[in-house]
Give the backbone structure.
Amino acid sequence: MELDIKRLTSIKTPAAFRDRMKDLSLDLPIDDSIQLAPESSMAQPIDLGGFKVGNRYCIHPMEGWDATTDGHPTPDLIRRWRRFGESGAKFMWGMEAVAVRPDGRANPNQLMAKPDTIDELCKAAEECLEAHAKSFGSTSDLLWGFQLTHSGRFCRPTDKKKLEPKLVYAHPILNRKFNLPMDYPVMTDDDIKDLVEHYVKAALLADKAGVPFVDIKQCHGYLGHEFLSAFTRKGPYGGETLEQRATFAREIITAIRQVAPRLIIGVRLSAFDFVPFKPNPVLATGGNLGPGMPEEYADFLPYKYGFGIDKENPVQYDLAETAQYLKMMKSWGVSVVNISAGSPYYNPHIQRPALFPPSDGYQPAEDPIINVERQIQVVRKLKQAVPEMPLVSSGLTYLQEYMPNVAQALVREGWTDFAGVGRMVLSYPRIIADSLEKGKLEAKFICRTFSDCTTAPRNGIKSGCFPLDEYYRNSEAGEAVRKFKKEQKETLKSVQGAAKAAV
């Protein structure tokens, strides 16, 4: 079966892009040219919690798996943050994830929010601000902060390759997928209450250090996200109603509002989920993983293991609860929500569209632009449902050369308030500045979604753009990534050859 996938690099003009959208029956606006500041819709300021943000570009939080084992910044991390500052974006969403408790780290080299790290974290952030001021003159309209997190089901606090999960509830597919028995212990209510206190303490540390913004992370299968689908959990932190499942976040956010009223609070949210996916082994060829397909879920209908999901058809979204949740968060004092989807651990195609999968992923089962358009339409629908909540869009990296053309159309038409940019700035730190100052991009720096920045940490290697950033390409980590990918491909070829011979 030949899939209808067309590389973005083969689409040479915005008109051809529109033709491709028609071919796929997608609704994705694009402008014919990149507008310059100050006229561009992307150059217009916007108020968030009393702070005037200077433009409509937001840098997503991105971990490098490269802090010290006790949660302090390193030169690699500071280099990355300086490049964020050089990007030209005026909203640094949480810089990167900072664990509020040691057991909640996604890897042993994740930053931690504690009394002996907060000053160094702020000094690292100052490097970002200094780089921005050097390039653009002022940081008075640049909003920055930290993303507060606990990784829950995907904790690896002591070993980069070993999960030490903290579960909210037993998930019949994910427990099996990650080799956990269904009676694996879930977090107690007392442990959750202690964790709430750690979030509040971390936010108070940030506030006292002069940090203007914190994100209470609720996305990508991590702990905050999992609470939103805890239909089967008993007690105060789960249940059938959204009010019950929102208790964890509500307790954190309302407490922060009381002890640190100056802080601007945001939430990065997986607005919808799908059932977990896996590679289709029948269609795996040439040392490549097969295209993605859903795990078997027929025995679990109606499906009570995802948020923003159609319970009768869990490969479709249902935004009724998501819109309700945005209104709830607004009432608690949340100023902005960064919309994402699903999880990179079990259905990465809906969250991080890419032509080339990471080592633990699967090949595209459809043109990745379909997954981009889905996320954009979700933000558009949520903006229509809750216009009072400022929103950040995600999933735009796959648009490559056309990211600025699409972003400015989305903001101008009111489909979103911010265009969020992530891994694109790892390879091309000045992509936003070039778009607003020159109206054109340098093709040689543009991310082509090779996913090495994800493959590396999945295999215990620090993250970076190994194909396009010489700093990482020529490093020991770069050599380790290339070696791993070669060995994985040879192993897959061997397995596929044996399976074919057996048939």
User: Anything to note?
Assistant: Residues 397 and 423 are 7 Å apart (CA to CA). The domain at 28-464 is CATH 3.20.20.70 (TIM Barrel). The first strand starts at residue 46 and ends at 48. The radius of gyration is 21 Å.
